[in-house]
Amino acid sequence: MSASATPETATSDADGKPLLATLLHQGVYRIVMQRPEKMNALSREMMSALSAELTKAAEDPDVRVVVLGAEGKVFCAGHDLKELTAARAEADGGKATYEAIMRQCSDLMQQIVRLPKPVIAVVTGVATAAGCQLVASCDLAMAVDTATFCTPGVNIGLFCSTPMVALSRNVAPKQAMEMLLTGESIDASTAKDFGLINRIVPRDYLDQVVQKYAEAIASKSAHTLKIGKEAFYRQLEMPLSDAYDFAAQTMVDNMMANDAQEGINAFLQKRKPEWTDD
To answer: Per the UniProt record, which residue ranges are transmembrane (predicted)?
Structure first.
């Protein structure tokens, strides 16, 4: 985090320990999971805290880009297996709890995709199972060279079906199936080759590179970024001809926006645009 801004502590757990830390600096909103002793697992509390911060980021006009990171050697270990196991003692064997947890996780991942602002994952350790899903759900991902990724559910008799949704929308089918069927870890270089992450950055330069990368995106029109992100994910689910029809209409609507007019005029006049975000 930048030393020029003051971090804020976000939601705490039942013991009073902060689940997240946040920082807003020059339009970049950093959300850091800080439960390394629990491998930043996606417990129900953690997912609720993340969702609340994403909602806050979506509604704050000063936030233009979200950066999601974590403390410790594990970026995110996926679901909290102790929490899942404890639910087996319930009258229905845990079924209702499992349904609620899987729905909550699915909603969180879709919230990231539908957030009207870009979300960048910064991976400094292991991203496994739903943690790998979390990386895949973000719009962009950067990692240190020692980061690893896996969907190991098959090793414990639990196929990573929900991580599969995000993974299969980021990497080629055979590469996704390789990860899902073997449960083996892949290194950062392989993850980049697969298309799961964008860049590999030396740890010593990570904060500097991420901030520069995020600020470059934050300098664009927020209205244009919102239009573009929404259109990107919507057209992916369409047949080719429908996608072109949708994209063409999106371009027309975008051209009518004030920021498009300002951006084009600024380019022609060789000056920096002054965005009004509409």
So the answer is: none
